[in-house]
Design brief:
alpha+beta, Rossmann fold, two-stranded parallel ribbon, two-stranded antiparallel sheet
Length: 105
């Protein structure tokens, strides 16, 4: 359900589906760890941001910032500069002829 009302999941755009999936996965993870008496240590978000328009990316950045204290670490994997610049620390991987080089920015 959204501002347009109730509709089938299949009728949401790819970007909307990504945001719905993100919220459901977080909620399920929290429920399962609470039941197990554990704590979520790491959140990994691997790509998927390309399906978002600028407003959708901004909403995801805000959501990640809101929940970041629930985790020891949050890893966001993306090639989108706007997303990379939204977080204070960046692990940058650069492919080179001799192998990949990693730097922390």
């Amino acid at each position: 359900m959204d501002a347009a009302g109730e509709r089938p999941y299949e009728n949401f755009s790819g970007g909307e589906q990504f945001r719905v999936n993100f919220a459901i996965r977080l909620a399920l993870s929290k429920i399962l760890t609470r039941r197990a008496g554990a704590r979520l240590q790491t959140l990994v978000i691997d790509e998927g941001f390309g399906s978002q328009d600028p407003e959708g990316r901004q909403r995801l950045i805000e959501a990640i910032n809101i929940i970041q204290d629930d985790f020891e670490r949050v890893l966001v994997i993306t090639h989108i500069e706007e997303m990379q610049d939204a977080f204070p620390t960046r692990i940058q991987v650069e492919k080179r002829p001799s192998g990949s080089a990693i730097s922390v920015v």
